[in-house]
Every structure is written in structure tokens, then in C-alpha cells.
Amino acid sequence: MLCFISIVGGLLIMMGQHDRSELFYYFRLEDQVPDTHLLRLIDKHISFAFVREKLKESHSDTGRPSIDPELLLRILLIGYLYGITSERKLVEELRMHLAWRWFTGLGFDQEIPHQSTFSKNRHGRFSGIEAIRGAV
Is 25 found in the same domain as 39? Predict the structure, then answer.
């Protein structure tokens, strides 16, 4: 995944003043996550494909576009692993962490699910599905 990030507020200092011009970075998220990172190891050894299969009955082809249940599970797993119990805080942190973006497959140009999505799915789509709870 190739990312292009524009950051305002660079650190270039000229004669005691900060230059606020935009800085551009070109990099691949793949290259930023070390081989030994916990999320890379989880991704290498665990397939999350079972989530879609278990939840296919609860998916509707009509209505608003749904959010991939595997993405939701990956985000919730990050919260569990890093002790983040607030979905609002989890979404906020996901915006900033390269490894978390890589693990979820979300590029910087992709929208992160709203924090309310998690509770809606927990009380809706995920409720009563013991196979998912047992796997997590």
C-alpha cells in the first residue's frame, strides 16, 4: 500500500522561525511495520476470513453499504491488545498509528468506521453469534 501524506507545520527552521509550508512523504505502510511487530505476527499466523463466512446470513444486499466485519474485528482486536476500551479513543488512535492502519488495511485516504458502528454491530449483527465470541 503506497501512501502519500501531506503534513502542514513542518520543522524547517530559518532564522529562528518555523516554516509552515507543507511537507510531503512518500512511503509504503508495508515497509514501516517491522517483521517482529505483534500485529504483523498475528496477520501472518491467523486468518480472519472465517468472520465473513459466519456473518454472511446477517448481511443484506440492500440499504447502505455495510462495513466489512473482518475490518471491525481487526479494529476491536487492536483495542483489546492495547487496552483501549473506549471505541471513540480507539478510532482516534487508529488515525495516527501506522502499524494499526497496515493491520486493518486502511490507507490514509480511506475513512475509518465511526465509533458508533462498533456498538451497533455488537448489539445487532454480532449479537447471538457464539462462533465469533468463541474465536475472539
Answer: no
